[in-house]
Amino acid sequence: MIKAYIADDEVWVVLGLKKQLERTGYPVEVVGTANNGLTAREEIIKLQPDVVFTDIRMPGVNGLELLKEIWSLSSGSRVVKLPISF
After folding, report:
1. How far apart are CA 79 and CA 77, in angstroms?
2. pTM, to two decimals
3. Is 34 helix (H, G, I), strand (E, B) or coil?
4. Diameter of the chain by CA atoms?
5. What is the pLDDT along the chain (86 residues), one digit of tens a residue?
6. What phi and psi values does residue 55 have, to the nearest 5 degrees?
C-alpha cells in the first residue's frame, strides 16, 4: 500500500485529490491531510508517507520550504507540487 499525504490550504483541492486517488484503483491510502505547512511538516515527520502532494503557497511553511525539510530528513518521501490538473 502506498501511503500518500496531501497539503494544501484550499479544502476543495484536498478533498478533490483525495477522491481522485481513491478512484484510481491503485493501492493508495491517504494517511493524512493539512491546510497549512506547519501541520503538514509535523505530520509528515510522524507518518513518513511514500508520496506528498503539496501546494507551493500555504500559510506557516510554504511548499518549497516543506520540500527542503522533507529532503533534509531523508525520509524517502516523493513530493508532487500542486496545482495539478484533474
Report:
1. 6
2. 0.82
3. strand
4. 33
5. 999 999 999 999 999 999 999 999 899 999 999 999 999 999 998 998 988 898 888 888 888 888 888 777 655 666 665 565 54
6. -80, 155
Q: Which amino acid is at 36?
A: N
Cell 510522524 belongs to residue? 46
Burial of 8 (0-12, 13-18, 19+ CB in 10 A): buried
* Residue given cell 486517488 in the structure block: 21
Question: Distances from the Cα of 67 to the Cαs of 6, 23, 80, in angstroms?
Answer: 13, 26, 9
Cell 511538516: give the residue: 41
CB within 8 Å of 47: residues ≥ 6 apart: 3, 5, 31, 32
